Each structure stands twice: as structure tokens, then as C-alpha cells.
Amino acid sequence: MGRLYYLQIINYDYYLDKLNALNNKTVLGDSMPRGRIYDCNGVLLVDNTLVKTIYYKKEAGITTTEEIALAYKVKDYLDLNYSKLTTSYLKDFYILTHEEEVNSLITESEYNLYKRHKLSENDFYKLKKSKIKESDLEIYKEDDKKAIYLYYLMNNGYSYDDKIIKVYATEEEFAYFSESNSKLQGFDTKYTYDRLYLYGDTLKNILGTTGKITSENKDYYLKNGYSLNDTVGLSNLEYVYDSYLKGEKETYLVQNNEKILIKDGKVGNDLYLTIDIKLQKLVDDTLTREIKTAKSSINTKYFDRSYVTISNPNDGSIKAISGKLYQNGKISDYGIGALTDTMTSGSVVKGASILVGYQEGAVKVGEFMVDECIKLKATPKKCSIYTMGYINDLGAIINSSNVYQFKIALRVGGVNYRENAPAYVKKEAFDTYREYFSRFGLGVKTGIDLPNESSGYKGDLVNAGLLMNLAIGQYDTYTNVQLNQYISTLANGKTRYKLHLLKEIKNQDETLVLYEKEALNNINIDDNYLNRVKKALNLVIKEGTGRNYIDLKYNPSGKTGTSETFVDSNLDGKFETESISTAFVAYFPTDNPEYAISISSPNISYINNKSSYIYPFNKIVIRKITDNLYSVIS
């Protein structure tokens, strides 16, 4: 009696709370509108738009048989893509509606394993599914499959959740389910939110996509407080900054399978990017237009893409990042390729290459060498594009001498070059070049705030010929953003900054996150050597291989690059057709750099017996962008 008094009187409130906790449950509502995305000047890039949506909410007491009948009843009023109906779903439905037949397929020994807990509930269910043959499912005709898929959508998730059946419903569908909802036992309509990209395909590839949580990553999202019916960022910026963009959902108390609002939701926070949309449009439009023009020229048969990145070399902020892909006569956005696609970039790396020589004592500032073909034992001749004769370090960069870099590379590798003599280099020589290159961002990730960035390919074979190739950008591969970080680091002459697209995150007018530039490393190169290279890069544009790429009134510095590559011309998996890929990097003004720009154009031309013409795509694109850059951002 005393124990009963203790439970009912003394600890009444405690046990009442325990009982309520068992009967009541707190759940979250639908996803709130995501935060908007703006450019660096506050121009709206991504907004939210209302979408006509049909949903289903399970009514209390409805049976499985009634739900199946309901699915058959309304299937013809909805146009659903039931091709998503998998064999696995069909087997689930078969088990649900043919329980006795399926159970009869289980052997006594299998059932005993289950009874003795040797098989879990989940494993036992999988066993049942494995017993169902494809021929068993032939009973389901097209109309059945429509109803089965609808039934799956009606039951995908928690029982108390609103199940989204269709977004972007037609006027007719929306009207039918709005007017008839009282007859349809749980079907109803509402407006939900979807992303609205105000500049169409511009930046779409970088901004990313949103959608429902996929089965592959549901565990991650559930662990982090999401619900299975949430709209989340699936790729790129929408994915990276999802925790800020998604906002806070309404909170409900579930009592007797009904939801009671106990806390209002909040819209997501807004993202401000470093992108200048006017500059981005200029780059996008120029690439699109010039790719179309290039495809009508000779020798561009295998040319199908190009990438451009423009950044501030003093902090790593990206002002424009663009990629365009040509397929079947159409051009689509492929900006993400600027950080995922790699190529041998050719002579653009020679600014870093000659710095290796200076720092390692393999060449002196102002040193003259003879530009002549290099011939090692048992290897073909290796030459510059033409024989340049007696040149110094400036001339070697200005006119892009391969031989000057070859001789430096052999010295770094410990080889005293003699014509037709054997040459042996150690792996440490490759490591030396790559270590210096990495200080500028070549062959390493830039740190850009996007997933799936490539670090490029590093060849693993070691010989003197390949070391010479490495020194002229014809061995390892690099992304376009790596080229941009490389020329940016040369431009500021001191620091490799992490590339980034985020400027700040705001909640209305309150700044929650303000991006601060992040130094990845100092290059630790002697200023005298850096100044010598900068002088050479300035002369490249004034009188060398980069003439007319950029108007001299901007006081630019830069470097061209051409590499021999190969394409799989007949799609047999073998890269047998020789092609030419080109790159260009620059910064301006030279004395106080504001912009760093890089362009990569794989397979711009190919080698054939009729013509060796290389279409000057990079020069045309860069000139048109830089001629208009200051006018569009003013």
C-alpha cells in the first residue's frame, strides 16, 4: 500500500511526464525556404519559387487493403514517372499481398533459424524476397505498376509525415486533388519551395542542385538531424553550405497521430559569393560564342571544351569560373570541369621551372645557353619549336625555349649533358620539381570550397626524358584552377592563398560568417629570382609568345602553353590520335595585380597530314574578356 501511495501521490508528476513522453513525440515539419544566393555585389542569383505539390497524409485507422485500393482509385489522375519502380519494390508489394504464398516458400530449417534468432528480422525478410522469382511478378500489368509505385510513395517515410507524391503538378492534377481531397482519404495539395536560378545555366554547374535525400547517404543525414523527406543540397555549393542554407523547420508535437505546432520555423541563411555575375556572364558568353566559331574552323574536330578562371591574386577570391562543353552541336555549362578535368598544360609552367633552376643553383640569372636540339643516347631528339641559338634566361621565357629548360632539368638531375651520351636521373629530381611546383599550387589541391577537386596526375616513371618533359609541362597534369592559383602566387610574389567562392553568410542584415583569406603556404623564393621571372612574364606579353593576348594598357604579364596530347578518336579506349592542347595564364596590372586569369583548352587542334594549323582560341577568348572586363564591372 505504501508503494502504491509513493507511485500515485509522491511521484505522480514524475511518472506522468514519463507516460507523456511515451505517448507524445516531437517531430519537425517540412523544409523551410532555403537561403538565397547572391553575387559579391548583392545581385540575386538563386531564389525560391512556389511549386504546386500533391501529398499524402496517412489517416488514422486506414488499413493496408484500403490504402492499396486508394492507390488504384487515384492512379489515373496523376502522371507519375513509374519507371522508377524497381524490382525490389515490386517484391515488397508481392510479399504484402501474397503473404501465405511467400511463407510457403520458406523451408522448415530456414524458419527454425529465424525462430532461434539465428536470422534477424531484416535477414528473414531478405530471404523472403530472394524466394520471389521474376516470373512471379509477371502478374503485374502496366496499370498495376502505376498503383504499386503510388502506394510506395504513400508509405515512404514515417507514418506521421506528409508524403510528397508529386511536385510541379499540373493545373488539372492540382485542381482535382484540391477539390476532391475530402473523398480521397489523405490526399491533399499544398505549395512547396524549389530553387529558381535567375541566370539560367550561368554558374548552374557550380551552384549545384537540391533534392530529396538519397538512399546512399541517408544514414549521414539522419545522424545529423535531418528527416528523410527533407530537401537538401545534393551537389557543389548547395551541398557544401547546406547546413546554413537549409534553415530551421517548424517543430510539432505528435499526439494521437496529429501534429500540433509548438515552434515556428526560420528561412535559411543567405550566401554571398565572391563571383561578380557581370564578369561571369562576360566569360560564359565569350566562351560559348567562340567555341561555336572554333568548331567551324579546320583541325578542331576533337575540341569540345574550355575552362576559364578569374580570381583576385591577393586573397584567392574567385570572380568568375566557367567551363563550356560542346556535344552534338550544343554547348552546355560545365564550370565544375575547371577543378575536375586535368591536362598537360605545356609551357605555362616555365615560370616555376626556371625558379627551380635558380634556387637549386642549376642556372644563374642572366646566364646564356645555346638553344639546340638535345640528343641523349637511345632517345629521340628533343627541341624547341625552332632553334633559337644563344639565349639567356629572359629570352628563354619570352620565346618559350624548351631546350633552356631541358638543360636546367638535366643539371637538377645531376647530369652533365653530352650529345648522344647516356643520362641517368634519380627520382629525387622529380621530387624537387614537384615540391617547388606545389608551392605555387601545381599538382596539389587549391582548397576551393567545392567537392571532388582533382589534384591532377603525377607520372611514376623515372628517366631523363620524362624529367625534361616535366620541366616544360608535358608530363604531370593540372586543373584550370591550379593554373590560376599558380599565376596568382607568382603575381603576389609571396603567398599561395586558398581559392574560394564564399564571401560571407548573412541572416538578413546580420553577418554570421565572413570569409577571411587563408594562406596555404609561403613560397620562400629569393626576391631577386622572382623579380627576374616577373620581368620575363611581362615581356612575354609585350614582345614574346603572348603578344596581343591582352591590351598593353593594362600592363599585363603572362605565359602561353602548348602541349602534345592524344585523343581516343574512335572511342575504342585507345588514345591514338595526336592532338594539341593549349593554356594561358596572366595577371594585371603587373605592378599592383588585381586579376589573375587562366584558360585551358584541351585538344584545340589535332595533327594530320593536311594541316598543322592550331586555332588561336585562347588568344581570341582572353583578348575579348580582358578588353571588356573593366567596362562590365564598372
Structure description:
By secondary structure, the chain is of the alpha+beta class. The chain has two domains: 25-273, Penicillin-binding protein, N-terminal non-catalytic domain, head sub-domain (Arc Repressor Mutant, subunit A, Orthogonal Bundle); 277-633, Beta-lactamase (3-Layer(aba) Sandwich), CATH 3.40.710. Helix content is 36%, strand content 22%. The chain has 23 helices and 22 strands. The strands form six sheets. Strands 2, 3, 4, 5, 10, 17 and 18 form a seven-stranded mixed sheet that branches. Helix 16 runs antiparallel to helix 22 (527-543).
**Number of strand segments:** 22
CATH superfamily annotation of the largest domain: DD-peptidase/beta-lactamase superfamily
Alpha carbon gap, first and last residue: 87 Å
CATH topology of the largest domain: Beta-lactamase
Spans of at least 5 consecutive residues whose pLDDT stays below 50 are 1-7
Rg from Cα: 32 Å
CATH class descriptor name of the largest domain: Alpha Beta
Domain module tally: 2
Characterize the largest beta sheet: strand count, sense, and whether it forms a barrel. 7 strands, mixed
Query: Strand percentage, roughly?
Result: 15-25%
Can you tell me the CATH architecture of the largest domain? Answer: 3-Layer(aba) Sandwich
What portion of residues is helical? 25-40%
Q: Count the helices. How many? A: 23
